[in-house]
Design the sequence.
C-alpha cells in the first residue's frame, strides 16, 4: 500500500514539473508583450518599456525567467503586472470567496445526484425514472445564464431579498447575526445554480452505472438466494458502481480555480473564475501562470485522493500494485 502511494506521489511530482515547464513556455512565447500595454498611459516611451521589462525580468532568457518566476512564487515575492500587487495575496482573497460557493455547490451536487440516480435505476421505466430523465435533460439543455436571470427576478420579486454580490452593500456595520444571514442569502442562489447542471449530468451517470451493475450475474444470484434487496443493491452493487465516480470526485478540486465565470459574473461574485478571466484580458502573465500552476496542483492532488479512495472502495487495487512491484 505504502509503495503504491509513494510511487503515485513521485509520478505526480514529475508530472507537475513538466506541466510547469510547458505552461510557462506556452504563455511566455505567446504573441504580444505585456510591458507595452498600459491603459492609463498609452504614450509610454521606449525607456519606460525597457524599465518595465527589467522590473518584471522580461529582458532575461526564458530559462532564467522560469527560475525567477517560481522562486518569487514560492517566496511570495511575485507581483501582478496589472496593479503591482502580490499575486498570492490576490489569489488568497478570491480563493476564500470561491471556497463557500464551491463547497455548497459540490455538496448539493453529490448529495442529490446519487439518490436520484440510484432510485431511477432501481425503479427503471417508472414515473419517477421518466420524470428524472426529463428534468435532467431539460436542465442540461437550459443555458445557465438564462436560468440565473429568471431565478433572480423571481427571488427578488417574491421574497424581496438581495442576491447580488457577497453581501448587501452598505450593511457592514450591522450585527454579526444579520451579516451571517445576509451572506447565506447571497450564497444560496449561485450555489444552487452551479449545482443544477452537475446534478442533472451526474445523476444520469449514476443511473447508467447502477443499471450496468445490477444486471450482473452476482447480483441476480444474491437476489435468488434470498438476500434482502436493500443489502444486495446498497451494499454489494453500489460499492462496485462507485468505482468510476472516485475519479470524478478527485477531479472536482480544480473547480476551485475555474469556478463558473458565468455564474460569478451574473451575481457579481468576486471569485477565482473572474480573477482568471480578468487576468487573461489584461495579459497579466504572473497571475495567469500562478493560477495555472495551482490548478495543476489541485488536479494532481485530486488524482492522488482518487488513488486513496480506490483502495478504500476496492482493496484489490493495492494488492495488484504490490504484486507488480
Sequence:
Amino acid at each position: 500500500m505504502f509503495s503504491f502511494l509513494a510511487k503515485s506521489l513521485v509520478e505526480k511530482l514529475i508530472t507537475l514539473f513538466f506541466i510547469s515547464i510547458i505552461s510557462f513556455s506556452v504563455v511566455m512565447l505567446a504573441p504580444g508583450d505585456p510591458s507595452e500595454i498600459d491603459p492609463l498611459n498609452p504614450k509610454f516611451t521606449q525607456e519606460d518599456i525597457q524599465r518595465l521589462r527589467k522590473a518584471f525580468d522580461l529582458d532575461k532568457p526564458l530559462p532564467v525567467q522560469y527560475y525567477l518566476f517560481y522562486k518569487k512564487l514560492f517566496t511570495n515575492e511575485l507581483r501582478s503586472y496589472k496593479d503591482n500587487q502580490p499575486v498570492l495575496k490576490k489569489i488568497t482573497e478570491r480563493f476564500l470567496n470561491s471556497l463557500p460557493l464551491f463547497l455548497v455547490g459540490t455538496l448539493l451536487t453529490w448529495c442529490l445526484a446519487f439518490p436520484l440516480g440510484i432510485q431511477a435505476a432501481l425503479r427503471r421505466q417508472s414515473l419517477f425514472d421518466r420524470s428524472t430523465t426529463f428534468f435532467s435533460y431539460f436542465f442540461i439543455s437550459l443555458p445557465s445564464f438564462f436560468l440565473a436571470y429568471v431565478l433572480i427576478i423571481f427571488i427578488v420579486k417574491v421574497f424581496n431579498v438581495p442576491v447580488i454580490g457577497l453581501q448587501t452593500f452598505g450593511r457592514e456595520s450591522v450585527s454579526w447575526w444579520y451579516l451571517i444571514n445576509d451572506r447565506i442569502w447571497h450564497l444560496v442562489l449561485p450555489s444552487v445554480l452551479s449545482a443544477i447542471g452537475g446534478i442533472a449530468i451526474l445523476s444520469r451517470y449514476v443511473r447508467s452505472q447502477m443499471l450496468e451493475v445490477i444486471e450482473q450475474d452476482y447480483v441476480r444470484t444474491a437476489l435468488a438466494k434470498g438476500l434482502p434487496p436493500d443489502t444486495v443493491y446498497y451494499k454489494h452493487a453500489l460499492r462496485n458502481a462507485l468505482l468510476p465516480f472516485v475519479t470524478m470526485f478527485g477531479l472536482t478540486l480544480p473547480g476551485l480555480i475555474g469556478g463558473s465565470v458565468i455564474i460569478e459574473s451574473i451575481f457579481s461574485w468576486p471569485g477565482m473564475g473572474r480573477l482568471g478571466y480578468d487576468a487573461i484580458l489584461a495579459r497579466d502573465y504572473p497571475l495567469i501562470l500562478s493560477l495555472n500552476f495551482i490548478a495543476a496542483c489541485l488536479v494532481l492532488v485530486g488524482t492522488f485522493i482518487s488513488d486513496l479512495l480506490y483502495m478504500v472502495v476496492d482493496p484489490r487495487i493495492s494488492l495488484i500494485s504490490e504484486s507488480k512491484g
Residues 87-283 form a domain with the MetI-like fold fold (CATH 1.10.3720.10).
